[in-house]
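Bench log. Compound arrived from synthesis this morning; before running ITC I wanted a structural hypothesis for how iron/sulfur cluster sits in the protein. Inputs:
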Amino acid sequence: MKLSSYHKLMGDEVHFVKGCVASFRETTWDRIYVSTLFTFFWSATMQTVKYYLRAVRSPENLIVGGVMATLLQSDIEKATGVRVLPGLLDRPGILDSDSTVVVDGLIPDYQILESIEYEYPVRDAYIAYATRGCPNRCGFCAVNKIEPTFRHYCPLPRQVKGIEDVYGPKQDLILLDNNVLASRSFKRIIGDIRHLGFERGATLNGRMRRVDFNQGVDARKLTDKKMALLATTAIRPLRIAFDHISMRDLYVSRVRLAAKHEVLNLSNYVLYNYTDTPSDFYQRLRINCELNEELGTQIYSFPMKYIPLTARNRSHVGPNWNRKLIRGVQCILLATRGMVSPRLEFFEAAFGRTPEEFETIALMPNEYIIHRRLHENNGAAEWVDIFHSLTKPQRRVLYDIHADGRVTEAHYKRTTSPRFRRLLEHYIEADRIEAARRT
Ligand code: SF4
């Protein structure tokens, strides 16, 4: 959106497309920018870059930026020969040596979002930053590579007024800060938010306004004083990360703090497939439901699968997980339409009542997890009975099979125990049902 503002400022015509669009490849453009995100989108991104190469006069005129461009700069250059710009456009002259404009400081061009059919949820929100970067260096996070310097204060009034002057008032305020609580100017930032019309209970056109620190806040830095300040704004939801069970006491104390200040709508990214175990993952989800029952909060959990920073696909399996358990989590979420219920009874129905029950569910044939009701007494019950009767060595064999991927006829034929064979048969039959459903 800021790139569009930059070129419109120079009187250029700007078009925005999502993915590979044939009609746009037939024109020769002065410049094409490809904005990248996660490195695990490597194949699709390379395909897109190569697709548009023939729509510019020289590869130099196709510029790739964004997260993947920062993390895999030389790989992209080698693979495509295009110009790759890592990091932020936060100095003049990065795009054009004779330009004095700092692209990152421009007001985003909301108009370009209207040029495609996809409805971006941020259309009716001011998108801004109160800080940039993060002083921390968490191993699973790319922020310090993209924005290595932490800026404690970026004036919100200038950004919000700038958007309002061109596009009129917006309903919500979405702040893309990575670690606002680390800012020395936190009190001033909260004051800015309130003065901009986003104080607690604020409305616009009869609707509640909303402030969302979209990337979450750091539980370690959430003191009583800072929570009291946050509570004076229209924050909804308050996002607090709960990345590992070792943070349990800290996390729970921070949720209690939020409840004390009557901030009850919370949201929680729950990292898994990192150094955690399935049991640790289950417990973190469960703690949120238990806190909801006790404190009257509404904490929505969003499981977030860990993928190494420079991985080119999503196949990574954490040391305490296997492919089937990861697929099992995805199947549970498919059954619940992507939602982890904030209510304990619904959570237990989906994820089980104990960590052991969760692991049993996640190991079931995928079809039995997704269509649980349908198979409850038609396959799943028998599978569970056999699974519980497995000896330790048999369980190990099952885990080894799952570590390889799907259960196949070959695994079945190699097995001599009739009960173990029957267990494997369930996977093969369920796969057939799943395949038939897809056709
Ligand atoms: S605190 Fe958050 S933003 Fe900062 S490095 Fe860690 S995960 Fe990244």
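What the model suggests: The CA atoms of residues 178 and 215 lie 6 Å apart. The chain has 19 helices and eleven strands.
ITC booked for Thursday regardless.
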